[in-house]
Design brief:
The protein has 404 residues and is mainly beta. It contains 2 helices and 25 strands.
Length: 404
């Protein structure tokens, strides 16, 4: 299916690092690394524009863009574990690739570019961090139609992907490879409808609220912090009928629950957790998919519960929101959904946890059409597509300027 198109040769001259000892064992060595780019069989390398290759140090999180000059790359990297990621575009497709490699010896790294998923529906903004006093009911998930065609929400699944918390995913194999199916955790919800009951016009969005009320108006205690959001005008309310503390909101439709493992509310971790939007193949309903026992798997090593598994090819948008602390950022999504990762910092900036910071994370604006439609950046690389660090939430508000 794939063919070798060319070799991207790079000489990685490692930084000469010394410790307090003069022992030669404490000195980093130089290694030659050849990166072999592999494209889908139907796509020639010279048809790919905006090709970009980045080396990310897994331990420190530092990124180095590997510039292409006559098919070679020369850079200086500290010895260690690296994620090498690549992205590019053709007239018809977006492409991404990701591979982990140890830089401790001369070697060839085979980096495969894949056609990425998507149908125009994307996460425009997500707010999951909550505020002080452990109040997370004010979360929201804004879904935007970034295409020039009507998209339908009917049957679209919103889910939280299980994974490690500041640690490698327990679902990865011994080589660090993630599974082809995504394990759902907490509550997996979806939009009702038989196919075309809930259209979303180009350039429009819907706000899906954990609880669709005005959270900024709630009564506070002396040590409490006000929520930054009023979600009383949300388009959808996530209602979990098995949880007595959850509420329905008059006049706002509820999403439906596909499957649950645990949780009082629909709630990703307040320090970040990957989210997906998925659409099942035509002819497969959410109800029939959930009823099929083949679509479940127990957590590796624990067997605590069956988890609903969604094949990655059903995902139409995925964002790897990860733990913000340096050296503790691990992926749970495949490169076909998100070749990068993104996160929210705490109020004191880099090096602080996102929990209860009251910050959301928004996708960058790539352009604005003549008739005023905002085009959000969507390369399936959240490291590039989102404004890193977080911001004050802006549900339903679309910027009027292009982001750098």
């Amino acid at each position: 299916m794939y063919k070798k198109t060319f070799y991207l040769l790079s000489l990685f001259t490692l930084l000469f690092v010394t410790s307090c000892s003069d022992d030669d064992d404490d000195v980093a060595k130089n290694y030659e690394v050849s990166i072999e780019l592999v494209t889908p069989e139907s796509i020639a390398l010279d048809k790919i524009s905006d090709l970009k290759v980045v080396a990310v140090n897994v331990t420190t999180g530092s990124e180095t863009t590997l510039s292409l000059t006559d098919g070679t790359v020369k850079t200086e990297l500290t010895a260690g574990e690296y994620n090498f990621r690549a992205s590019g575009n053709t007239d018809d497709f977006k492409l991404n690739g990701l591979i982990n490699a140890s830089v401790y010896e001369n070697k060839v790294v085979r980096l495969t570019l894949n056609i990425v998923s998507g149908n125009g529906l994307i996460f425009k903004e997500v707010y999951y961090t909550g505020v002080m006093a452990y109040y997370w009911k004010d979360g929201f998930y804004e879904i935007y139609n970034n295409s020039n065609e009507v998209q339908y929400l009917d049957g679209v699944i919103l889910g939280i992907v299980d994974g490690g918390f500041g640690a490698p995913s327990p679902w990865a194999d011994e080589d660090g490879n993630l599974p082809e199916r995504y394990p759902m955790i907490n509550h997996t919800v979806y939009f009702p409808g038989s196919g075309q009951e809930y259209p979303l016009e180009p350039g429009k969005s819907v706000i899906v609220a954990t609880v669709a009320i005005n959270h900024s108006a709630r009564e506070l205690t002396d040590e409490d912090t006000a929520s930054p959001v009023d979600l009383s005008n949300a388009d959808w309310n996530i209602y979990i009928p098995t949880q007595a503390s959850d509420i329905q909101v008059s006049g706002i439709p509820n999403t439906l629950v596909a499957y649950s493992t645990w949780g009082l509310d629909f709630m990703p971790r307040v320090n970040g957790q990957a989210l997906i939007l998925a659409k099942l193949p035509e002819g497969t309903t959410v109800e029939s998919f959930v009823a099929n026992p083949d679509n479940y798997q127990k957590t590796p090593g624990t067997g605590l519960w069956n988890q609903l598994m969604i094949p990655h090819e059903y995902v139409i948008d995925g964002v790897d929101f990860v733990y913000p602390m340096e050296g503790q950022q691990y992926k749970t999504l495949l490169a076909t959904e998100d070749v990068g990762m993104t996160w929210v910092y705490g109020n004191d900036g880099p090096g602080t946890e996102a929990s209860y910071s009251g910050k959301s994370i928004r996708r960058k604006v790539a352009g604005i059409t003549e008739d005023g439609m905002v085009i959000y950046k969507d390369t399936n690389n959240s490291s590039e597509d989102f404004i890193l660090g977080g911001q004050t939430p802006t549900p339903g508000v679309h910027p009027t300027t292009i982001d750098d």
